Amino acid sequence: MTTVTTDTELSKRFHWISRLLEGWSIYKKSFLGKIGLTLLAVFALMALCSSIPPLIDPMYQPMAGVDPEIFTATGPSTRHWLGTDFMGRDILSQLLTGARIAFMVGVSAAFMSVFLGTTIGMIAGYTGKFMDTFLMRLADMIMVMPALLVLLMLAALFGQLSIWFIVFFIALFRWPGVSRVIRAQTLSLKHRPFIEAARVAGASNLRIIFRHIMPNVLPLSFLYMTFQVTSAIIIEAALAFLGFGDPGTVSWGMMLQWVWKTGHMFKAPYWLLPPGICISLITLSFYMLGRAMDEVLDPRLRKEVETD
Amino acid sequence: MSRMVDPNLTPEDAALLIKEFGLDQPLWMQYLYYLKNFFTGHFGFSFHYGQPVVQIIGDRLPNTILLFTTSIILSALVGIFLGKIASWHKGEKTDTYLTLGALITHTAFLPWLALIMIWVFAYKLGWFPITGMISVEIWLDPKAGLWIKALDVLYHMTLPLTTLFLIHFGSYLLIMRSSMLDTLKEDYILTGRAKGLPEKVIRDHHAAPNAALPVVTSVGLSLAFSINGGALTETVFTWPGIGRELVFSVSHNDYPLAQASFLLIAIVVLLSNLVVDILYAYLDPRIRY
Å from B238 to nearest chain A CA? Predict the structure, then answer.
């Protein structure tokens, strides 16, 4: 008798693990998902390795380290596996640091915008009426603004922007898409029996939102987070490419700007190709991850597995 | 106040500038000044060009509209067409290649793609001009007719247009594909098959027009993305448009020009959203506002 109760308790406590495993079993079937995850693992490894080259020799510092014997852009060699840029800085170590910056920018901006979007979407969907109209019209307004150009204007006003300022503003511009989806989901949840039951039992509005609605919309939020990461990385890279990035960071967009502005784009393909390929591949892999997760969250597919 | 005035200006020039924009007034008065200038069509002079801002913007606007609308219409049409094909061959090789190709071009980093295009097609192969919009010798030649000039612009436009097209058509293809797959499950498709209509008629006349509606919506929703892309493309290809002018004026602290370009882009965004909404109502008779 006791073993049975502990069993059910255990399965209750670890319910999320079984759900996760179930999700993983669907995810595994997606070819795109597997490619995406592999690529992301490679980029994560690059980000982790970013601090190794400077430890070997200070000339591998991505920003300040200059090879004492090289003063121009040179091609790949044993000393510099991917060559050096116009003042003798190592391209490989810049590329590794760029991976770290891309993850940092992408994940933190996505997290903030998804946090904002989920909260605003839930509030708009749950309270309805004036608040709903107000928040959704605000979302419409922000949604049509070209974030890159607004950031450009801000750069013109405030001079050089720091990387955290950029991250914060990307998040501020990217929440409307998330909040629309979350609002629609909240609207469909609002009149379900379990919400009514919670209300009858005397739960406050805040408790209903955070205890009963939030767990049901969070999977969707996570899905949108992957797409947000993509757009955050692209916006930061584009801003850096135009010369308005944080001058203290080495991002891939910054590397492309150096190639472009110093006029090496025809002379130095070994310098032009790697950062662009990296940006394109990291956005591609997050996009693939999102599409595969979309399949995991699709209720039609989930049902198939549950009936097994 | 201090942000607007370049520290390198002579005191007289600075005083003139302060007077023109009312910069010594409190902020709300400055805003009223701005509104007055806005409604009387007085946008000031560009610091860099020394010309009236209205004139510069008027010069650049047609170029941007030409490149932007052509690329959006082209990529939407091709996206719809290829999406239709992909969904029709669902699960086959055609579908896999089209979807994968769409994903890869759609997620490519635009400025980098533009640089690669220039590098390969303009520099290595020499098929197209590297930058710019017109060849000066053709436009200065009095004998050159309108057609030659148009062809010249088209020749210069090929690379920027291809870049924008490659970036954009992928998302339309993916949307069209999934919407088409949903549409094919509808009852009226089954009815069409039961009536014995040819598959081609069902695909092109029954399914595709209905499935294309979400693509129209997404053109409107992705407009912000397209405008970002347009500005980047114009900058890399030095296409004399509004987006490039905005980037340029921001880098050179040319505030009147930056302000006016930004305002114009805002107006363009609003107008094109309106156009998309009207188009949507026209295409889908079920929609009534």
Answer: 13
Best mutation target, A152, A252, A278, to test chain B (most B CBs within 10 A): A152
Q: Residue B7 above 70 pLDDT?
A: no
The reply to whether A269 touches chain B by the CB within 8 Å rule is yes
Q: Which residues of chain A have pLDDT under 70?
A: 1-15, 298-308
pLDDT higher than threshold 70 for residue B289? no
Quickly name the fold that domain A29-52+88-301 has.
MetI-like fold (1.10.3720)
The CA-based angle A219-A145-A104, given to 5 degrees, is 50
Q: Encoding tokens for residue B19?
A: 């007077």
Partner-chain contact B109 A237, CB within 8 Å: yes
Contacts of B118 in chain A (CB under 8 A): 265
Whether pLDDT at B1 is above 50: no
Residue in A closest to B130 by C-alpha = A266
- Report pLDDT for B4: 55
CA A105 to chain CA centroid, Å, is 7
CB atoms closer than 10 angstroms to residue B81: 16
- Answer yes or no: pTM beyond 0.80: yes
Q: What is the ipTM of this complex?
A: 0.80
Domain ranges of chain A: 29-52+88-301
pLDDT digits (tens, 9 = 90+) for A237-274: 998 888 888 888 888 988 888 888 887 777 778 888 88
Query: Residue B49, class by beta-carbon neighbours within 10 Å (0-12 exposed, 13-18 middle, 19+ buried)?
Result: middle
Distance (Å, whole) CA A206 – CA B162? 51
Classify residue B258 by burial, with Cβ atoms within 10 Å: 0-12, 13-18, 19+.
Answer: buried
pLDDT value, residue A304:
44
| Residue A187 contacts residue A125 (beta carbons within 8 Å) | yes
**Residue in A with minimal Cα distance to B258:** A153
Q: Between helices A214-241 and A252-261, what is the axis angle to 10°?
A: 20
| A window 170-229, beta carbon within 8 A of B | none
Q: What DSSP state is assigned to residue B122?
A: I
| Helices (runs of H) and strands (runs of E) counted in chain B | 14, 0
CB A280, CB B112: distance < 8 Å:
yes
